[in-house]
């Protein structure tokens, strides 16, 4: 409904009455939902450390090859490019929402020629002409008063969605970084195990040669040769599996970087780096701002809350004002455009007498919507409840992930210490066997068997080291991988689950 009141006092009285009517039917304003400001990590007994992972956390491993892989991944990864595209889309949505909230100015220019029906309401015989020309030039100004904060809430909702998209991009980058590091360390572990497998194959081949010699001399039964040959085949199979695994990991690295396998930078085997595996002392409180997925979920809550403001503002009247200024001229006869001296000339469109002006204040109030406004508001409330539930689920998932990875890292550290003790014992056995061999007390078989057992334990140690690195990377990812919610956006998020938050001050609701 559009009303153009004839007198200012009557218009003001009508506006006040309709506004009060709208307020009577509008739902009550929502308080900020209660959100957790810590993660449930109480009772977790895990080693602690000072500080959080740095933004470039992979540099702590001191591996130039890994640094180069990370640089390439952050520039060319298809998943990261896709996430960045979502950020750009959200940013453009903010610009669109802001553009719809301000003053709009439109210009028009049209020229039309029309024939009047000879059997119409005004026959041409009375007018004296059958054809006429219409020329219009004008500018229209329109401004909607955002008294109830609907457009402001829409802008802030779009801005919160942009913040969420940026946090999601950070989460995607962290996932890619974690996958690159894990795949690279897996390749290093395969290469280290391949070196041990080659040594083990040489030992088993030597044992096979001794067994064949002893059988030819009639000292041992032929079955000893078959047993030794079986061990050689087993080591060869393990070596083939490791070679295949190393190649697959390089292909996976190329896919993560968005390049062909041939375009991978040259990789040289090197020792696996040391691991950390400890939690920051303030993980329980600070993890909320350190996890990009939690930050994204929190911004989604803020955006959904603003959408409830938009839906609630629909119950209130919209007040706008439209102004128009231009030139308009109607002439009969043939259109001698901008020429002079004929009845069809449109040159007088630019004369002072062709000026037209208009000013139209308007009031739009929903009176009967068939429940549409209530349904739209109910949908926004349901979406808000859903985003709050998703936020809480994200927080609990983060706590479970941190706790499980921290405990796994501690257990692996204990297992690796025990494995080191086992290797030390096997190294002493090898030294004793070699000493007896030099003294002529025993033959070479005892030393070779001890060496084979040592190589097997060393292979197990490399596998445990690789598992520890995987757990270390998973813990870094669980801790947010160096992400930190920017100060200008973090200050806009609620800091207490019981207060309306700082964000409430920037978007007051009627």
Automatic annotation (TrEMBL):
* Pfam families in the cross-refs: OEP
In what ranges is there compositional bias, type Low complexity? 486-501
Q: Which InterPro entries match?
A: MdtP/NodT-like, OMP_efflux
Is Transmembrane given among the entry's keywords?
yes
Q: Which residues form the signal peptide?
A: 1-26
Predominant location: membrane
* Chain positions covered by the region annotation Disordered: 486-510
This protein's UniProt keywords: Lipoprotein, Membrane, Palmitate, Signal, Transmembrane, Transmembrane beta strand
- List the protein's name: Efflux transporter outer membrane subunit
Identify the species of origin. Rhodanobacter humi
């Amino acid at each position: 409904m559009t009303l153009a009141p004839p007198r200012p006092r009557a218009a003001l009285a009508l506006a006040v009455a309709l506004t009060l009517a709208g307020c009577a039917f509008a739902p009550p304003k929502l308080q900020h939902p209660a959100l957790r400001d810590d993660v449930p990590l109480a009772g977790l007994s895990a080693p602690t450390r000072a500080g959080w992972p740095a933004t470039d956390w992979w540099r702590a491993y001191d591996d130039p090859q890994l640094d180069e892989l990370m640089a390439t991944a952050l520039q060319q990864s298809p998943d990261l490019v896709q996430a960045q595209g979502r950020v750009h889309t959200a940013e453009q949505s903010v610009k669109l929402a802001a553009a719809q909230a301000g003053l709009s100015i439109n210009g028009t220019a049209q020229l039309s020629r029309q024939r009047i029906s000879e059997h119409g309401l005004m026959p041409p015989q009375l007018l004296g002409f059958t054809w006429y020309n219409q020329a219009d030039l004008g500018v229209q100004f329109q401004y909607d008063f955002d008294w109830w904060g609907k457009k402001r809430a829409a802008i802030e909702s779009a801005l919160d969605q942009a913040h969420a998209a940026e946090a999601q991009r950070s989460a995607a980058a962290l996932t890619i970084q974690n996958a690159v590091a894990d795949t690279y360390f897996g390749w290093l572990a395969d290469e280290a195990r391949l070196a041990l497998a080659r040594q083990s194959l040489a030992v088993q081949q030597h044992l096979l040669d001794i067994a064949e010699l002893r059988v030819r001399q009639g000292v041992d039964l032929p079955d000893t040769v078959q047993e030794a040959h079986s061990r050689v085949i087993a080591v060869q199979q393990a070596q083939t599996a490791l070679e295949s695994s190393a190649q697959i990991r390089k292909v996976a690295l190329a896919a993560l970087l968005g390049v062909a396998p041939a375009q991978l930078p040259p990789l040289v085997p090197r020792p696996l780096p040391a691991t950390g595996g400890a939690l920051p002392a303030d993980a329980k409180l600070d993890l909320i701002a350190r996890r990009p997925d939690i930050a994204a979920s929190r911004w989604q809550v803020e955006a959904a809350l603003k959408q409830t403001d938009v839906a609630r503002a629909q119950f209130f009247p919209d007040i706008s004002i439209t102004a128009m200024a231009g030139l308009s001229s109607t002439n009969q006869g043939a259109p001698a455009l901008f020429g002079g001296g004929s009845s069809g000339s449109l040159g007088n469109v630019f004369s002072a007498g062709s000026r037209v002006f208009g000013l139209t204040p308007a009031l739009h109030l929903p009176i009967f919507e068939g429940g549409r406004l209530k349904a739209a508001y109910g949908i926004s409330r349901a979406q808000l409840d859903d985003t709050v539930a998703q936020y809480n689920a994200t927080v609990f998932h983060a706590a479970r992930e941190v706790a499980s990875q921290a405990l796994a890292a501690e257990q692996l550290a204990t297992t690796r210490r025990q494995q080191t003790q086992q290797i030390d014992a096997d190294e002493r056995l090898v030294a004793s066997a070699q000493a007896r061999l030099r003294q002529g007390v025993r033959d070479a078989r005892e030393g070779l068997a001890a060496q084979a057992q040592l190589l097997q334990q060393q292979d197990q140690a490399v596998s445990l080291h690789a598992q520890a690195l995987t757990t270390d990377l998973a813990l870094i990812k669980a801790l947010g991988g160096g992400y930190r919610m920017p100060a200008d956006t973090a200050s806009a998020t609620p800091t207490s689950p019981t207060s309306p938050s700082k964000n409430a001050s920037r978007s007051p609701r009627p």
